[in-house]
Structure formats: structure tokens, C-alpha cells
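Subgroup meeting minutes
Present: P.N., E.W., G.H.
Scribe: E.W.

1. P.N. recapped why we're keeping a running log of single-chain structure predictions: easier to compare across weeks, and new members can see raw inputs and outputs side by side.
2. G.H. added today's entry (356 aa).
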Amino acid sequence: MVPPAVITTIPLSPGQLVWRRLKQKRIAMLGGWVLIVLYAASLFAGFVAPYSYERQDRERFFHPPTSWKIRGGWLAVPRTESLGGKAKYQTFADDTAPLKFFVRGEKYTLLGFIPATIHLIGTGSDQHPVYLFGTDQYGRDIFSRVLYGSQVSLSIGLIGIVLSFSIGMFVGGLSGYLGGRVDGVAMRVTELIMSVPALYLIMALRSVFPASLSATQAYLLIVVILSFVGWASKARVIRGMALSVRERQFVLAARSLGQTTPKIILKHILPSTFSYAIVAATLSVPYYILGEVVLSFLNVGVQEPDASWGNMLSAAQNTEYLQNHPWLLAPGAAIFITVLAFNFLGDGLRDALDTK
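Output recorded in log:
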């Protein structure tokens, strides 16, 4: 007699369980894929963008988004000319150039160190430019500037989160585990930072430094300022979690075995806060992105001609510009989509990491 087959199930790891729960959240997965596309486009901005962020077309300022024609089954770009030097254009439907892929154009550095001249799309003709989002008041391609600006705005969020959460987890874990005077001093410092309105504190810290900073210096300064402002609230939450974890059996066992305080904090206390840290970090990235946008919008962040989503929106302050040329709000749409995607992903991660 053949014994019945034994059905065995392979237990899932915590990571596999989280991934299975996350996949069930369609809106969170959508947010994740949107962010993957945005960061990939940012990483390869020089390749995806048809032009450089500082290229000016002096004959086509405030040019509307490119209109398309079908020629021989392919997309074609018609030639346009300005009417009397004004921001109004005449389209010549009979004079077109086909849209091509992998077109040779302006030089750029791929990934920051690889020289290249191949762009994803283009026509190869200066008379038939491709302006997907139109041009600004200086004749610069807004689509290209949005891509280059994403390198600043998107990366500031990730780097700022790494710095602020590193400081917050270290201070909060140390304060919660040691308690006593260390806890008292650390919490008073965090309360002092949190008591000052963030925007005023950011502006005050920025005013200490000279206005004539290079784009790289301004970028690093914004990251440091936003990280300095943001770590305090994280430290308080981590401290509360550390207070509850330090009395659990595995921490008491490690202490009785003679493990040192730094080892207990790094191996037992802080890993217990990772589920909160992952969710909070995902939900906090939009804060850093919007912080950079506000600083650049107020002309104390990344300055022209360098591109960031914040300084690109400064043109939208002019109501006449905005009324006649609504495509200037393209960076605002990019900010809206990015913030929404991070919130969707953060909500999904919060549900997926919930042990209950």
C-alpha cells in the first residue's frame, strides 16, 4: 500500500510575507512603479532629455508643447516660426521632420562620468525642435529641465532621509536605552529644535551662509539643513520604542551575558525599530523634496541657470505668464505625482509591515 503523499509547506521569511502583503495593495504598487520610473529617468536624465538644461532657443521663447503630425505612418514634427517676435507661432504643416530614436545631439555625461552624445528622442534638426512640455521665458526646454531638476529634487529626499534617520535613530536609541541624564539632555535638545517653526529655522540657517554659493554647495547645504531640522521628531519616536524594547527578555538576556552597551543598541534595540523607520522614511521623503522646492522657490536654494523643480516654479509667480503659458506648471505636476506616489507606497508599507 502506497502511503498518502505528505503535503509540506515551506514557511515564508518575514521579508517574503511583507512582499506578499504589499503586492496585494495595488495603489501602493502603482506608487512604487511610478517612483521607479521617476528615479530611472532622473538617473539617465542626459539620455532621456532631448537637450541640456541650459540650452536656449532665442527664436522660440514661450513655445507651446510640440504639435505632432503623421507622415508615412510615423510621428513628425512640423516647423514653427514666431509671429513678429511675439510668443505666438505659426505652424508649417508641410515642412516636417520625422521623430527619431537614439539621435546624436548635445554632449552630456551619463551617470556623471561617461561622456555621451546619444539622446532618446529628437529630430536632428534645429528647425524642428522637440519641446514636449514647451519652453520657458528664456527659450529653454521645460521637459529637459524637469528631468535635470529631478536629479536635485529627488536625490535630496533620499540623502536627507538617510542623514536625519541615522542621527534620529542613534540619538533616540541611546537616549531610550540609557535613560537618566543622557535621556534628559537629548530630549531637551530635540524639544528645542521642534519648538522652532521649521520654515523659519531653515531660512535662519540658510541666511548664515553667503548667497553666492555654487550649485553643488547650495545642494549640500540644503541637504544638511533639512536633515538638521528633521532628525528631532524621529529621535523622540525611536526613544519611545527603545524604552519599551529595553525591558524585553532578549535584551535582558544579552545584558546578563555581558554584551556591551553599543552592541546591545546596535544588535537588539535599533533593529526592533526598523519597521517604523522604513514606513516613516517613505512618508517623510516628500517633506524633504518640498523643503528643497520651497527654498529654491524663495531664491535661497539652487539658483539659475541650474535646474531644480523649485526654481523652475518661480516663473509661475507671474500671473501673466501663468495665464498665457500654463505649461510652466509642469514641474508642479512632477512634484504632485512624486509626493502622491511616496504617500501611496508609504501607506502600503505601513499595512504590509503591521504584524497584527
